Amino acid sequence: MHLTTIIICVWNQDCLIFRRKTSIYLYAHNILKMMKLFLIQHALAKSKEEDPERGITEEGYVITRKIASFAKQIPIEVRKIYHSGKKRAKETAEILKEYLEPTDGLESAKGLSPLDSHLIWAGLLSNINDNIMLIGHLPHMEKLCNFLLSKDGFKEDIKFKNSGIVCLERYTGNRWIVNLEINPETL
Fold first, then answer.
1. What pLDDT, on a 0 to 100 scale, did the predictor assign at position 60?
2. What is the pLDDT of residue 174?
3. Beta bridge partners of 136
4. Could you say which DSSP state residue 32 is in?
5. Residue 69 pLDDT
6. What is the CA angle 52-145-172, rounded to 5?
7. Is 136 helix (H, G, I), strand (E, B) or coil?
8. Could you tell me which of 56, 80, 79 has the C-alpha nearest to residue 137?
9. Phi and psi of 13, rounded to 5°?
10. 23-28, strands of its sheet edge to edge
11. Is 60 helix (H, G, I), strand (E, B) or coil?
12. Which of 5, 55, 102, 114 is the most buried if burial means most Cβ atoms within 10 Å?
């Protein structure tokens, strides 16, 4: 005779409680906390002729502020925002920092430039447990996102839009799923 075990999961502020028959197992929330990764393509940028460093346009500022305001209301909480160091990514990060107030601020990071290998951050993420935001460029952001999502054999094809947010959530076994997408065109 096989007994079917029903597991009921209840989220509490500090703990995840598993009830299995009469036994109760408590796990500290920090141990089972699922890491969220927020991926953003920088805001709309000026042409090289208009600005050789390609800072963001006025429209880019407006759209990013709208996205950041919406993200704050959800609320999106991140410990740190990393950006590529390029002017357009840094300016996008500064706007998001103003609204989201990450506890560890902003940091320019290697491995987020347009032609950098997505494997750099794919490797770094395995050692990060806090919610973070990465602000970078195409094709890098799409390659990183689709690589993380396809690790369990399913091919994903997430497309990024300037200032849009794609949130991935990591589960046990370094398995990633799409948790949220905020498209600037729908706000």
1. 98
2. 85
3. 41
4. H
5. 97
6. 145
7. strand
8. 56
9. -60, -45
10. 8-11, 15-20, 23-28
11. helix
12. 102
Strands 15-20 and 8-11, by their bridges, are antiparallel
Q: What is the pTM of this model?
A: 0.82
Dihedral sign, Cα of residue 137, residue 143, residue 149, residue 151: negative
pLDDT for 106 equals: 97
Residue 14, Cβ density class (10 Å: 0-12 exposed, 13-18 middle, ≥19 buried)? exposed
Candidates 3.90.1150.10, 3.30.70.1050, 3.40.630.30, 3.40.50.1240; correct CATH number of 34-186? 3.40.50.1240
Q: Where are the domains of the chain?
A: 1-33, 34-186
Query: What residues in the chain have per-residue pLDDT under 50?
Result: 1-32
Which amino acid is present at 26? L
Q: What are the counts of helices (DSSP H) followed by strands (DSSP E) for the chain?
A: 5, 9
In this structure, the chain runs to a length of 187
Quote the pLDDT of residue 1: 38
Place of tokens 């909480």: 77
Q: Tell me which residue of 83, 138, 140, 148 sits closest to 116, measured CA to CA.
A: 140
Q: How far apart are the C-alpha atoms of 21 and 76, rounded to whole Å? A: 35
- At 121, list the tokens: 């951050």
pLDDT for the residue numbered 34 = 85
- What pLDDT shows up at residue 186? 84
By DSSP bridging, strand 23-28 and strand 15-20 are antiparallel
- The Cα–Cα gap between 80 and 130 comes to 8
Report the largest interatomic distance among the alpha carbons of the chain, rounded to a whole angstrom. Answer: 75
Q: How far is CA 91 from the centre of its chain?
A: 17
Dig out the tokens for 44 from the structure: 């709309």
